[in-house]
Amino acid sequence: MRTEADEPGQVLYVDDDETLLELTAATLETTSLSVETESDPTRALERVRDGSYDCLVTDYEMPGLSGIELLESVRDVGEDLPVILFTATGSEAVASEAFAAGATGYVTKGRGTDQFELLRNQIRKAVVQHRTRRELERKTAAMDEAPVGITITDPGREDNPLIYVNQQFERLTGYPREEILGRNCRFLQGERTEQGPVDEMRAAIDAREPVSVVLRNYRRDGTMFWNEVTIAPIGETGDGSSDDDHGSSEGDDAGSHYFVGFQRDVTRRKMAEDRLRRQNERLEEFSGTVSHDLRGPLTVASGYLELARDEIDGEIPHVEAIQTAHERMGSLIDDLLERARAGTIVDDVEPVSLAEALETAWHPPPTVEATLNVAVDEDVTVPADETRLVQLLENLFGNAVEHGATVSSVEESGGETGDVTAAHVEAGDDDERENGDESERGHAGSPRVTVTAGLLEDGFYVEDDGPGIDPESREQVFESGYTTGSDGFGLGLQLVRDVVDAHGWEIGILEAAGGGSRFEISQIDGIRGR
Fold it and tell me: Strand ranges (DSSP E) for 172-326?
């Protein structure tokens, strides 16, 4: 890609001697210089105002407007254009007058070609300096207006002082520029600033390496803020090459280099991270409490119930109700633990095979004649935390099997229980089917359900052929504790919503084509292989 530095320098040469004008222009013209000519200095001033030149070359003595007057007029209109006087009237007085008026260079006309070579060299130097200054001004303006704090320090000077800060750094810290420049950035530190990140940053500066740390800093008014600081070396090595690769040079004569720093106030993010960490710690404590303090007494109670059954002959009043209560309590503990663990965070998001996740999550109870139709190609992937995605699917499948199963017969279904075809994943153990063990499933009158999973334009769906969910209840099913059954606690679908939200997806409930429930997970960016 061509930049301004690749383009020829645009030069306007002004001289009332048209013969010399054309000769000089033809001599100066090269691949790096493009020369335009003008014999009228008044028109030349208008062209400077309207055009875009890198250098102005002018004669000294011209009718109507002298070279010095043209130079002064250019400066009066605010142009910082390099101006070189090329004149036969060579004297110390003229040269002094020219430089006092703001001339960039001064070349005396003479005989031979040396004068043109000298003029060409001065023009090239002036063009490079002008373009460099203009580029620096653009970059400085961009840095001053940047939404992050930007600093430049000089590690070659004692104590690595700040030599540049932008306006956002002033706003961030509350210090005016005059109170900042010349100081080391440590003036933002305080008694509670952790030493570890400071040492890490100092080591990176000594090694001329980039680094990013988060520091506890203090504003001019004493208020604390968390400052995310990223620094990197910039400058030139001893051979004049740019140090853009963040490399380092050894030795004192390796060339000048500086450090550029970027500062962002991340106080809100840091506080949110701390809150999340404390919440996760409390969840871990809660999980441990539930597992130890609740499971222990429940196990003891269940054990005594079994002992009572063994020791007492005959029917024990209300024993079944007690056992059911124990089982319900165990289910509640399981649901609470699953909710606590799933609600922590989405960890590693990577491409996950949707077909494999569907098959991994499919394990219906053997007492239900359940069939899963997978309408998804094997090479389709979704960006997700695989563990959380499988949890989501397990709960959707569990909901479909629990609430979507209807009583039917094997003869009506025309197939075995638990099928999955390419679609089709079967419930139950393969060895049991081979051995003909149908004692607990597949008999006439067993509940039956067919679940189908497929792709959407921006996600996937899971639907069943059960009785469905009435429209009035579709939003409630994701609420904690909502349940339509007598043996559940309504946490499964809330967990589904949590996993969906953690990924930044959307979920909705529709009516399936056959009248059952259809859960659509959408707004998934990055699905591949469809």
Answer: 211-218, 224-235, 257-265
The residue among 192, 165, 190, 194 whose CA lies nearest residue 180 is: 165
Q: What is the DSSP string of 435-462?
A: TT--SSSSSTT-EEEEEEEEEETTEEEE
- Choose one of 342, 360, 380: the last residue of a domain: 342
Q: Which residues contact 474 (CB under 8 A, 6 or more apart)?
A: 509
In whole angstroms, what is the distance from residue 66 CA to residue 78 CA? 19
How many domains, in total, are found in the chain? 4
CA 338 to chain centre: 30
Tell me if 88 sits within 8 A of 109, measured CB to CB.
Answer: yes
Predicted TM-score (pTM) of the model is 0.47
Do 53 and 43 lie in a common domain? yes
Alpha-carbon distances, residue 475 vs 162, 396, 480, 492 (angstroms): 57, 15, 11, 14
What is the rounded CA–CA span in Å between residue 462 and residue 400?
Answer: 9
For residues 188 and 326, state if they share a domain: no
Residues of the domain holding 393:
350-522
Tokens 């653009």, residue? 138
Q: Pick from 503, 506, 498: which is nearest to 523 by CA?
A: 506
Give per-residue pLDDT as tens, 350-407.
999 999 999 999 988 888 889 999 999 999 999 999 988 998 999 899 888 887 665 4
Helical segments of 362-439, H only = 386-404, 410-413, 430-434
